[in-house]
Amino acid sequence: MTDNIQEFATKARHTPTNKKLSDSQSDESRSLTEIMHRGIRKNGKFREKLTDYSHAFARGEKFDAMKAEMIIRDQFKEHYGETMNQMRLGLKERQENLPETAQKDAFEYARMIEPLIRDGDTMPFYRAYDYVGGALAEKLNITETGAKELMTMAYREIEGRELYDFGKALEKKFIVPEREAEQQAREVKREQTQSLKRT
């Protein structure tokens, strides 16, 4: 990852737009491209976020929000090899033309949620759902939102129940008792500390 960032920084510093930026402006705009990339991969959207971040980036600089947006767009294309819109459209197209195995994959990934909630360092449903959705999105090269919808539909169709309801029931069974035990332990410790202070 560090090598990729260094390579990007070196290449990006030689683009016409970036040659005119200070190091701090270059670093900041590069960080913003990563935020844009994350948002597109998550839900296939970038327009509002790009507008907001362009205004924030331009604040205190000698260029306006339009110029800031152009800088972010240029850096994005340099870093990811395509524009934000090309990336968005590519994800959308793959979502619309899923392979025949997509439903089977989605169901298998949905089933991975249970051990994440139940075993070891457990996590609540929303985190397990998010984690597994991200992994499926990566496998199918679609948005995380699309992958989550796919898991939900596949689970409903195959299991005949809602994935959300199943996940929340698991959370109630495995996470809630753990939280309650931790809270009880904290209360006992607090009472002991207060008791010691009184003596």
Terminal residue distance: 55 Å
SSE topology string: HHHHHHHHHH
Question: What best-fitting shape do the alpha-carbon axes yield?
Answer: flat
Work out the strand percent. Answer: under 5%
Gyration radius over CA: 23 Å
Report helical residue fraction.
Answer: over 70%
Structural class: mainly alpha
Average pLDDT level: 89
Number of domains: 2
Low-confidence stretches: none
Number of helices: 10
Number-wise, the strands total 0
Most strands sheet: none
Region (Disordered): 1-32
Key structural traits:
mainly alpha; 2 domains; 199 residues; flat
List the helices and strands and how they pair.
Blueprint: H1 2-12, H2 23-43, H3 47-58, H4 65-80, H5 84-96, H6 102-111, H7 113-118, H8 125-140, H9 144-159, H10 163-198
Region (Disordered): 1-32
